[in-house]
Design goal:
Blueprint lengths: L16 H8 L19 E12 L3 E12 L10 E10 L4 E10 L5 E16 L12 E19 L2 E17 L5 H6 L2 H9 L6 E13 L10 E11 L10 E13 L6 E15 L28 E12 L6 E13 L12 E13 L4 E10 L4 E7 L4
Antiparallel strand pairs: 1-2, 2-3, 3-4, 4-5, 5-6, 6-7, 7-8, 8-9, 9-10, 10-11, 11-12, 12-13, 13-14, 14-15, 15-16
């Protein structure tokens, strides 16, 4: 009919930071830049960005974060693999470095997962449980080394079983910053717990092996639009094994799912559940389940603010794009942590530590869906933090 536009507008072409850079240079996109082109085996998508943040554990920090995504085989039958690494230096004179990887071999026959960290760091220590008060906390400095390596074998599509080696070393523990630091260290929850269970105050080591079961149907591990991740890992730390101080067992549970709110996935919800449970024996203080121990959970609190023999954690996040081309996005999230402790008599759900926050996203690489993530979160008792990272929290 005259005067009525009956045409259907095509969806906006996805745009990332690389496209903006080419536009500034007046350079046309190449065939490799075409999002509609099928990814090929051994394609690599590399992102390197500054890392700036501020949170209770570190104060102001700066450094770099990098992320490389690639396919080890035919993308039709092989999931995308990710290697991320970073290093940062903090206002509190900490040096924090780490490398993580999730690598699928050709046709997903094997899945290799690693979490490796090396830090010269410090942390405020508190009494156990979610109800612990900030009064009486003590700042401790220590050196931290972690090597977690697991190899999974595919037994059915999406289902893997694996075995791993797990090493944790906390060394050179000593009084940190603050007035009367030495006195605070002597009266700290760390020293009291260590004395009660016969651990050396200077160095504590947990080494052992693990078995795991993993189910993963996500379409993309970097920024999923749908699917499930469910995993259970049972770790046995052995006294005397490579210098281990005690024998104890841990069950670690991780479940995630993603739900589209619109058919084009511009708006979606993401859900995350963690369970970290000491099932037997006595773990050293720093190896007890804690909030933020994975490095990305419990935004709004510093790592280790809440600690105990058992921890449960849940989070929900809304993810949406603010521009039709997907370049700019935003998130809103809420999380809650509950911890129990036989030391204090507190049980799970007797108290909780909620937090909530907002964030912005900038699409760094549209092929791998890698975002630059900036978040600000608020917790209870005035706790808050600003976070900057490459790749979503979960």
């Amino acid at each position: 009919m005259d005067g009525i536009d009956t045409s259907i507008s095509a969806p906006a072409r996805p745009t990332d930071v690389g496209d903006l850079w080419r536009a500034v240079r007046h350079k046309l996109p190449s065939e490799a830049d075409d999002l509609t082109a099928e990814p090929a085996a051994h394609d690599r998508f590399v992102v390197l960005a500054p890392s700036i943040g501020s949170k209770p554990t570190t104060g102001l920090s700066g450094g770099f974060s990098s992320n490389m995504a690639f396919f080890s085989g035919d993308p039709a039958t092989t999931r995308i693999s990710v290697v991320s690494a970073g290093m940062k230096f903090s206002q509190k004179k900490q040096t924090l470095a780490g490398t993580r990887f999730s690598i699928f071999t050709h046709d997903d026959r094997w899945f290799l997962q690693g979490d490796n960290r090396l830090s010269w760091t410090s942390q405020n220590t508190y009494a156990l449980g979610t109800a612990s008060l900030t009064d009486g906390s003590a700042n401790l400095k220590y050196d931290f080394f972690r090597l977690y390596e697991t190899a999974y074998r595919k037994v059915q599509p999406g289902l893997f079983v694996g075995v791993g080696l797990d090493l944790n070393i906390h060394a050179n523990a000593r009084a940190g910053a603050g007035v009367d630091a030495e006195s605070a260290f002597d009266q700290s929850a760390y020293v009291a717990y260590s004395a009660r269970h016969g651990f050396d105050e200077d160095t504590q080591i947990s080494n052992g092996t693990s078995v795991g079961l993993l189910y993963d149907t996500r379409d993309n591990a970097i920024n999923a639009r749908g699917g499930w991740l469910a995993s259970a890992t049972y770790r046995t730390f052995i006294g005397g094994f490579l210098g281990g101080d005690s024998t104890w067992q841990e069950l670690y549970l991780d479940a995630r799912t993603y739900r589209k709110l619109t058919t084009d996935a511009r708006h979606k919800l993401a859900f995350w559940f963690l369970g970290d449970l000491v099932t037997g024996g006595v773990a050293p203080y720093f190896d007890l389940p804690e909030n933020g121990g994975d490095g990305r959970s419990a935004r709004g609190y510093g790592e280790g603010r809440f600690r105990g023999e058992r921890m449960l954690y849940g989070e929900m996040e809304y993810r949406g794009t603010l521009t039709p081309n997907g370049l700019i996005g935003m998130v809103a999230f809420a999380n809650v942590t509950t911890v129990d402790s036989t030391e204090t008599g507190e049980r799970l759900f007797d108290s909780a530590a909620p937090a909530a926050g907002l964030g912005l996203r900038v699409l760094l690489n549209k092929r791998s869906r890698t975002n630059l993530c900036t978040d600000y979160a608020w917790g209870k008792n005035g706790s808050r933090g600003f976070y900057l990272a490459i790749q979503e929290a979960f």
